Amino acid sequence: MEEVPARARAYVAGVALVALVLVRPPHGLGTVPWWAVGLLAAVYAGSEHLARRRFAGTCYPVLLAGAFLLSPPAAALVPLPGALLSTGGPRPTPLRRVWRAAELALAVWVAAQVHTALGGHGALRATDFPFALLPALAAVAAFCLVLALLDGGILAAAEHTPPRRAWRGLFLRSVAPVGVHGLAGLMMAVLWRSPYGPLSALLVLLPMGVSWWVFAQYHRERAAHQATIRALVQAVDIKDGYTRGHSERVGQASMMIARELGMDEDRVEVLRFAGILHDVGKLGVPTRLLRKDGPLTPEERRVIELHPEYGHEIVRGIGFLGQARAAILHHHERLDGSGYPYGLKGAQIPECARVVAVADAFDAMTSTRSYRRARPVAAALDELERCAGAQFDPLMVRALVRALARDGWHPVVTAEEAPRTASGVPAAGAQQAGR
């Protein structure tokens, strides 16, 4: 808890106090049977433990079933044992457990209130599934909204994230996956109210378990991909130390351009991979050239200029990189045909390579190197715009300018101190950037 800012601890305490008030109604739980609350709480605690330990997920169907079946105060009790006793996830400190319990209790309480106000309990008692959909979907939306508001608040309080960035996209990203959980919760609630009883409702968790397993396999594969990329980037950083952090920043700038152009998230991810790995071919360049203290001879520069082809060969067999391989090969091509390795012109250069070329040059100009200090962002953008049409694709340059004007430049890694390198002479504008 010592690492958590005081205002974040105060925020958690405030949310926990509100949740405590909501789960302690003045007249008890009324007609709600305690055994139902206890059963749902026990199922949630067990499912949550398994989901977070084995699948890195969470078991929202049981919570939403509680919101559909119980009164708001009773439904808010369901997540408490599972959240407070959780042993899964990163560093389950007491503060994290209290925060998780409080935010889930509030979200479930609001979802139950919305469901009750829209007559959801009556539709369930009549086992009228179609008419139960509208209150359930509204309750799911309310559940997502509360979680998004609270999660954005803790980001702003704990990590000093600007409010606009803290809440951006949280609600929309959660609606689809939590909506699926909501449908499963509704099926549990309908079966619970049916003649088959509560035990039949638990069968709904079996297909959910299968989906969690599939999802976990996907995340394990993704983690393996990330580990492969990290290993390659670390190898490049060790060999060519002056560019330490450069790869991650080029990946970040490539993502900004791709999103500004409206590319789907799969292509954005490919561009991130391409930016991170664009210089992996330097592994095939002699270290003495990369670290040479002085100007390169024409022969030495030709050897350096082979690194895109070396990089393409290194990643040729890595299937998940997709079009990133073309970006690695062609990110030093220029629109006027004066680039390398093949002197491609205009539209002959793959789109992903044109994105990475702009991101690479931008970071090279805004990073401190042994032979010059970093340029201001505005000066680097002016240089990119000056070279647009000859060296860079104007569309990509404009996309980066718009993205930076809106979001600013917050590089994830900086490399202020750097050893001397292969060029030994100052770059002449963008033409030398990102060599």
TrEMBL record:
SUPFAM superfamilies per the UniProt record, alphabetical: HD-domain/PDEase-like
Domain spans labelled HD: 243-365
InterPro entries: Cyclic_di-GMP/3'3'-cGAMP_PDE, HD/PDEase_dom, HD_domain, HD_GYP_dom, HDIG_dom
PROSITE patterns linked: HD (PS51831), HD_GYP (PS51832)
Record key words, sorted: Membrane, Transmembrane, Transmembrane helix
Classification via CDD domains: HDc
Region Disordered, annotated ranges: 416-435
Transmembrane annotation, as ranges: 65-86, 130-158, 170-192, 198-216
Gene Ontology terms, MF aspect: hydrolase activity
Segments forming domain HD-GYP: 221-416
UniProt keyword Membrane present: yes
Protein name: Metal-dependent phosphohydrolase
Protein species of origin: Streptomyces mangrovisoli
